[in-house]
Amino acid sequence: MDFSLGEELEAVRDLAREIFTDRATPERLREVENSPTRVDERLWVDLATAGLVAAVLPEKDGGAGLGMAGLCVLLQEQGRQVAPVPLWPALTGALIVAAYGTEAQRSELLPALVEGTGRPTLALEEFGPADALMPSTAAVEDGPGWRLSGVKAVVPAPAGARHVLVTAATSAGPGVFLVARDATGVSWEYAETTTHDMSAHLVLDNAPAEAVGTPGDGAVAHLVRGAWLALAAVQAGVADGALGHAARHLREREQFGRPLATFQAVQHQLADCYIDIEAMRVTLWHAVDALADPFDAEAADRAATVAKWWATEGGLNTVHRVQHVHGGIGVDTDYPVHRHFLWGKQISTTLGGAGADLERLGALVAGGAVTS
Fold first, then answer.
1. Is residue 321, in this structure, part of any structural domain at all?
2. Does residue 24 sit in the same domain as residue 156?
3. Residue 335, SS3 per DSSP
4. Average pLDDT, the chain
5. Residues 6+ apart with CB under 8 A from 88
């Protein structure tokens, strides 16, 4: 199977790489890490102005129609530079609104996203041994709308988000719901994450909401699969960026009169990193291709789960090895490679760790179905 990028995706990759490299400098990253929101709003506007945010959306919504493939290309470039902008939650959520939302919902969310003046975020995780595909947050009908009650954990980048896409359980099955950030019954408990991002726990107390699509229609499974792939794409970029740091360091650092890169033990470590990264890329693009087939949800579930596991396991292994070969410099919290380690560590536990991924994959291989 040929996973090479076409001209449009190559153009997105090249432009995104240029912008992230120019804007996400170590000095700028330190500045953003000390800001109240931990989001680089200038970079967000730059990405929107360049058309990269709009590139993933359907043409009818002002985009270029590149979808999940375009999003994964963009996220890989973000991961290489560990750039602090909430692309994966905002754009994964936007694709669900574009696919399942009403015309009014699309008109309310997507033009502001394209212009860089507003964005949504996602509330998928919950406390305890929770499965994102089976939320415990409850939604009950209230006339033409809904009311939500429950707690969602570690909502990414709530600052600057006008709306939250929340997964919740109903009598007809799980559904995706749109909640205004400042609606009645909505409260936030802010929490710093491993990557120094500012997330928040979302407390919903009979909060008003609109359904995106119809509960039980598969939107939750579609959203969660998209989130798995988005995280896998970021992780592939993080791992590749970390490997680049290691290669440069080992070429320049000497021991016993020889560059460290010439020592066989170090070469083996980097070879293992390269193999993991290539496996992450192959499984990611296989999953992107599988998700494009609307008639084989089972294949899409398997491919997305495999990609998620490789990102979780291979990505974490890579950032660990890279930090190790840097020696004492690798644990310097101000040294660039340390950010890659922190990002790799956090992504490896977002929406479940490697054990949860293997359990899910085992159920799929054994003939179980992923609930929607």
1. yes
2. no
3. coil
4. 92
5. 71, 75, 156, 227, 230, 231, 233, 234
Tokens of 313: 């396991």
Co-location of 242 and 352 in the same domain: yes
Instruction: Supply φ then ψ for residue 192, to 5 degrees.
Output: -75, 140
Domain of residue 105, residue span: 7-119
pLDDT at residue 82 greater than cutoff 50: yes
At residue 300, does pLDDT exceed 80? yes
Q: What are 169-221's pLDDT values in tens digits? A: 999 999 999 999 999 999 999 999 999 899 999 999 999 999 999 999 999 99
Whether the Cβ atoms of residue 175 and residue 216 lie closer than 8 Å to each other: yes
Nearest to 181 by CA among 153, 154, 209: 209
- Residues 165, 74 share a domain: no
- The answer to whether residues 227 and 67 touch, using CB atoms and an 8 Å cutoff, is no
Strand pairing class (175-180; 161-168): antiparallel
- For 1-20, the three-class secondary structure string (H helix, E strand, C coil) is CCCCCCHHHHHHHHHHHHHH
**Predicted model pTM:** 0.94
Provide DSSP, 234-273: HHHHHHHHHHHHHHHHHHH-EETTEEGGGSHHHHHHHHHH
- Lowest pLDDT segment from 27-36, 71-80, 304-313, 323-332: 323-332
CATH number at residue 91: 1.10.540.10
pLDDT bin (cut points 50, 70, 90) of residue 145 is: very high
Dist CA 56 CA 12 (whole Å): 10
* 171 and 240 housed in the same domain: no
d(CA 309, CA 282): 13
The percentage of residues in the chain with a pLDDT greater than 90, rounded to a whole number, is 80
Query: What is the percent of the chain with per-residue pLDDT over 70, rounded to a whole number?
Result: 97
